[in-house]
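Below is how a single chain appears once it has passed through the pipeline. First comes the sequence as given, then the structure the pipeline wrote out for it. We keep one example in the README because the format questions we get most often are answered faster by looking than by reading.
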Amino acid sequence: MSKAISGVDHVDGMLPIPQLFAYGLQHVLAMYAGAVAVPIIIAQAMNLPIEDLIRLITADLFTCGVATLIQTLGFGPVGG
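Resulting structure:
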């Protein structure tokens, strides 16, 4: 019924460490850019001083970290 596709391993397969590192770094950079862009846009639209922009970015990154922990560790019925 199911055929193996050339070059594709099974679902539970483990990639080599260099490839895992590259994909992890790509994910972190994409997440960071997306997380920082929104506070910058909002701060510029509201003409906020740089100190408030820094607080917005810090709060956003903190919230992303908390959301990541909830998703990975689980919290009641929420999370992986």
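Residues 17-73 form one domain.

See the next section for the split statistics.
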